[in-house]
């Protein structure tokens, strides 16, 4: 069975460019995480919430495969709009 694809569309703040990326998660790679100590963080003990207490804790990090990337640049004096790149179908209810 083929892996489900994900697409990401990013529009520049000035609307002069946009980018589209399509990819999928190939696997999860085991990674080790450690506790990070930051002055005046967390509960006052310096530990940042959400990090492992033990350096030997293992977690899975996704191995992402990017299959396609596209950059669109607007013509001089024009702008890129999302509606031009990915028009929404009309007459269909959104989930």
Largest sheet: 3 strands, antiparallel
- Placed side by side, the strands forming the largest sheet appear as 1-2-3
Please give the radius of gyration in angstroms. 21 Å
The secondary structure category is mainly beta
Counting structural domains, the number is: 1
Enumerate the spans where pLDDT stays under 50 for 5 or more consecutive residues: none
- Average of the residue pLDDT scores: 78
Number of strands: 3
Count of helical regions: 1
Question: H/E series, N to C?
Answer: EEEH
Spatial gap, N to C terminus: 25 Å
Q: Which percent band covers the strand fraction? A: 35-45%
Shape field: extended
Q: How much helicity do the residues have?
A: under 10%
Any overview of this molecule?
By secondary structure, this protein is mainly β. It is 4% helix and 40% strand. The chain has one domain (6-85). It has one helix spanning 82-85, and strands at 6-11, 17-32, 58-73. A hairpin with a 5-residue loop joins strand 1 (6-11) and strand 2 (17-32). The radius of gyration is 21 Å and the shape is extended. The relative contact order is 0.28.
Write the layout of secondary structure elements.
Layout: E1 6-11, E2 17-32, E3 58-73, H1 82-85
Antiparallel strand pairs: 1-2, 2-3
Primary descriptors:
95 residues, 1 helix, 4% helix, extended, mainly beta
Brief overview:
The protein is mostly beta strands and 95 residues long.
């Amino acid at each position: 069975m083929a892996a489900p694809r994900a697409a990401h569309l990013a529009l520049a703040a000035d609307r002069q460019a946009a980018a589209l990326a399509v990819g999928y998660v190939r696997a999860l790679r085991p990674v080790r995480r450690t506790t990070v100590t930051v002055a005046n963080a967390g509960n006052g003990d310096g530990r940042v919430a959400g990090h492992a207490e033990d350096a030997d804790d293992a977690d899975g990090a996704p191995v992402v495969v990017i299959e396609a990337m596209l950059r669109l640049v607007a013509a001089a004096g024009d702008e890129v709009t999302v509606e031009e790149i990915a028009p929404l179908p009309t007459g269909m209810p959104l989930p």
